[in-house]
Amino acid sequence: MKKIKHTTFLKTTFIALAFLSLSSFSFAQILTSSPYSRYGLGEINLQTFATPAGMGGSFIAYHQDTVAPFFINSANPAGLAGIRLSTFELGGQAQFTKISSQASSLNKKNINFSYGSVGFPIKRIGGAAFGIMPYSTVGYKITSTQEEAGVGTMKYIFQGDGGINKVFIGTGLKPFRNQANKFYISDLADTLIKYKQTSKYKHKKFAKQLLSELSIGATANYLFGTINQVTDVIYPGSSVYYNSKRQRSIQVSDFTFNGGLQTHFTIDSIKSHGQRRALKEKLKVGVGFFINTPTTIDAQQNNIIYNYSIDGFGVERAKDTLLNSQGNTGNITLPLEMGIGFSVKKGERLTVLMDAATTNWSNFKYFDTPSTDFKNSYRVSAGLNYVPNKLAYGTSNYIKRVQYRLGVSYSDGYLDLKNTSVSNYFVSAGLGLPVGIGRFDDIAVVNISAQYGRMGTVSNNLLQEEYVRLVLGFTFNKRWFIKYKYD
Fold first, then answer.
1. Among 25, 31, 121, residue whose Cα is nearest residue 72
2. Which of 76, 126, 406, 477 has the most CB atoms less than 10 A away?
3. Going from the N-terminus, what domains does the chain have, and what CATH number goes with each?
4. pLDDT for 339-389, tens place per residue?
5. With contact defined as beta carbons under 8 Å apart, do 209 and 201 qualify?
């Protein structure tokens, strides 16, 4: 008699509900202190987890190893095809930022829970995952003063909070995974070998290998959230003019889609001095591609503008309302984003990644209105992951199972303010620390990464952010959905 272990379903459901609840609670916090989150939908987050964070955010061609631990590639769904164990990931981050102008500086810190996701294999043909994470974050307070003739000193206060969250569900499949094996046992292969058509055999083998390793992925995303913005104009030295306040909130609720491709080929020997020599560790050379499709999403806007005074107790006293506009619907146009990545993997120890991506932010529209503050941008990054020996189990061999990561990333930025690009770069380092009992089908890893970077500039009266970002993530691999046999 066959019986499916019923606790597996309960376990999966409990974990999914737990991290969704935690994520919804945590996303209510202020996740950033960047003054540049004032523009558009806020600060756009790189849509990856803790593992790529230690490698400069490189993810496009990052495919799974053949042995655990496995991870969830949330940004390129083609990477989900290699998941071989049920996978649960969650993580958070702490960021310490120094915001500087030409005259002064201040320090900010933000600590929050960032993401949660569950992934699982789909037989031997692929894998799937779902989860929740921030898409963009808003959190700023900017104060400035200006002298106006006949009025005196005017004080401006700009404040904002909130952001857009993303719930995603994606899958990656290898629809042609048996093509190479079918070629090896085919009559065509036998004929090419028999008649010593070596060159044609190699070309056919290479093409079939690329096709067998080709993974195709797609993700559906549900974006939702609210952005609140308040602007105060204060006349502190005037008894003639009332202060004014504008309160605006934006609610977003709609779907977007993205996709990706990955494939790789294996080099198991090299030609040296006229002879072919087998490599001790095979080289896997991979390529990846991802695309976030340009999308028009539905949004709703509320606006209130009113005058007020401040009494002797510091309490605002509203005088008259100049505008009260509620429930105005419109569209926000998100840009096309796409990129290509390369990977080189030596055995099960060393993986080197390189990414290049571009985003067409000049087509971004906010309630159908183009923004002159946005421009097309690009991002380049590189990283590596090294583990001495994944299979070196035992307390004395623990250090050999630790994963070591390094990376670097540069983006010229999507904001163009005062004819100045707001660029961003960082260097990163990370560790993957194995925990738990260490069985091949029950593995846990604590992923820690640190990023040091700079964003913006103090030129042209802009602001520069110097930040240290610490990312902590947990990855759990376990064999779920097992059928047990009882005699």
1. 121
2. 76
3. 2-177+213-485 (2.40.160.60)
4. 999 999 998 899 999 999 999 999 999 888 888 899 999 999 999 999 999
5. no
